[in-house]
Design brief:
It is a single chain. The protein is an alpha/beta fold. It has 13 helices and 17 strands. The chain has helices at 4-16, 53-61, 75-84, 88-91, 112-118, 184-199, 223-226, 235-257, 297-300, 326-335, 351-354, 416-436, 440-443, and strands spanning 28-34, 63-65, 68-69, 122-128, 152-156, 171-172, 175-176, 206-211, 264-270, 301-302, 304-307, 316-318, 322-323, 365-368, 378-382, 385-389, 396-400. A ten-stranded mixed sheet has the order 7-6-5-4-8-1-9-11-2-12, with helices on both faces. Strands 14-15-16-17 form a four-stranded antiparallel sheet, with helices on one face. This is Sulfatase-like hydrolase/transferase. Belongs to the sulfatase family. It holds the Pfam family Sulfatase.
């Protein structure tokens, strides 16, 4: 197989052979990712209480997906899949990355910011990172956002600390920022706006990642965003959604002000379903079964919207299933960059789904969440059918999620042949994924780095 370096050289040669054309014909990319927002946490998806005017505006200007999925029921793995197009156990970020464990996004993985940078794009990441452990973050012995293709970055390891209010743990291009006064989402959006207006090279197309902390715990919400909810016991959470919606509006306004909105593909989604515990009542799955950490729909079906003027019909809806790992292939297609050929890419381009047309998948939609319930540790979807397996891969549940989106009618006993068919595909797929990923990371059990291993491969 080609090495990563060989692929990047091939890409440069390929780009050099292209017929030159105006830079403005190459679309900009914005991926706006929120943290722990449920499928039912906005007015766009039927919530009658939470106010999300900017999401409503985005929906009116683009497409709303009714069946958008995160690649995992928890944070770090779903983020790794967005950047690499590869299911988490394959790309190595198999678990929620915290503490001092060895798991991290390896530099042997190829990210879409790397490929776009090689293709002449300017790249920026602002917000949460969470793709290396606490001991690795901002430690030059280990990969940082800049090692994965970002020219400019301002990030936290995991959550904004001590909360969303006045966070003090941001790092900008390797230097600690110190206390930032305000609330996390607007602060992150302000950094994105500053980069768009003052720092980027306007002669180049750009790729911008805006990864908010909201509405992840511990929540802190500006009183002005709580005010519309009066004395509702869940006003802090609902106001937190409105706070992140405000941040989305800040970025959308900045794109308009810079005159680049019409040539920008903007994707909005969440890293997993809602938490729903702690000091707040929590988010809404919109009636879906399960929550964050589950491989039932409530843990993995998330908001998904996209806007690309002139290419996506304004105000349209799509019920085509798409997943976070599809962002990789989608971005590369619209930017005219070829997919890597030396590795399995699990995701596919969403471009047909933008128009409500089906996508063709060589690899089924697949989830394996290490902290899910014992009965829903793994899941796979093919067409209308979803198989959910237990921790030991010995017991399986079958659902027709196209019709039974609440997963109320388990069909394995009624349809044993379909269950066995899906089971055979899932077990074969898992065997392939397990063999490719760094299985020593999840088989070790200690989840601690080995002495002398810098883990940067």
């Amino acid at each position: 197989m080609k090495t990563k370096a060989m692929f990047l050289v091939t890409l440069l040669l390929w780009m050099g052979g292209l017929v030159s054309h105006a830079e403005e014909s190459r679309p900009n990319i914005v991926v706006f990712l929120v943290d722990d927002m449920g499928w039912g946490d906005s007015s766009v998806y039927g919530n009658e209480l939470i106010k999300t005017p900017n999401l409503e505006k985005l929906a009116k200007q683009g497409v709303t997906f009714s069946q958008a999925y995160s690649a995992c029921g928890v944070c770090s793995p779903s983020r790794s899949a967005i950047l690499t197009g590869r299911t988490p156990f394959r790309n190595g970020v198999w678990c929620h990355v915290s503490g001092n464990g060895p798991t991290h996004l390896r530099t042997s993985e190829i990210t879409y910011p790397e490929l776009l940078k090689e293709a002449g794009y300017e790249t920026c990441h602002v917000g949460k990172w969470h793709l290396n452990s606490r001991q690795m973050f901002n430690n030059r012995e280990f990969p940082q956002p800049g090692d994965h293709g970002y020219d400019y970055w301002m990030a936290t390891h995991n959550n904004a600390s001590p909360s969303h209010k006045n966070p003090k743990n941001f790092v900008r291009n390797g230097k600690e920022v110190g206390v930032m006064e305000g609330y996390s989402a607007p602060l992150v959006a302000a950094e994105a706006r500053k980069w768009l207006k003052e720092i980027r090279d306007p002669s180049k197309p750009f790729a911008l990642s805006v990864w908010l902390h909201e509405p992840h715990l511990p929540i802190a919400t500006d009183p002005r965003f709580q005010e519309p909810y009066g004395n509702d016991p869940n006003r802090t959470y609902m106001g937190n959604i409105t706070q992140l919606d405000h941040a989305l509006g800040m970025v959308m306004d900045a794109l308009d002000e810079q005159g680049v909105a019409d040539n920008t593909l903007l994707i909005f989604t969440s890293d997993n379903g809602p938490e729903g515990k702690g000091g707040v009542k929590g988010g809404s799955t919109g009636g879906l079964r399960g929550r964050k950490r589950n491989d039932y729909e409530g843990g993995i079906r998330v908001p998904g919207l996209a806007r690309w003027p002139g290419h996506i019909e304004a105000g349209s809806k799509s019920d085509v299933p798409v997943i976070g790992s599809d962002i990789f292939a989608t971005v590369l297609e619209v930017c005219g960059v070829p997919l890597p050929e030396d590795r399995v890419i699990d995701g596919v381009s969403m471009v047909p789904a933008f128009a409500g047309k089906p996508v063709e998948r060589k690899v089924p939609l697949f989830w394996r969440t290490h902290v899910s319930g014992p009965d829903d540790r793994v899941a796979m979807r093919i067409g209308d059918w979803k198989l959910v397996g237990n921790e030991t891969l010995t017991k399986f549940q079958l659902f027709n999620v196209q019709k039974d989106w609440k997963e109320e009618n388990e069909l394995s006993e009624k349809m044993p042949e379909k269950t066995e068919e899906m089971k055979g595909i899932l077990l074969k797929l898992w065997k392939e994924i397990e063999a490719e990923g760094p299985r020593e990371w999840w088989e070790d059990g200690s989840r601690k780095p080995k002495k002398g291993n810098k883990l940067s491969y």
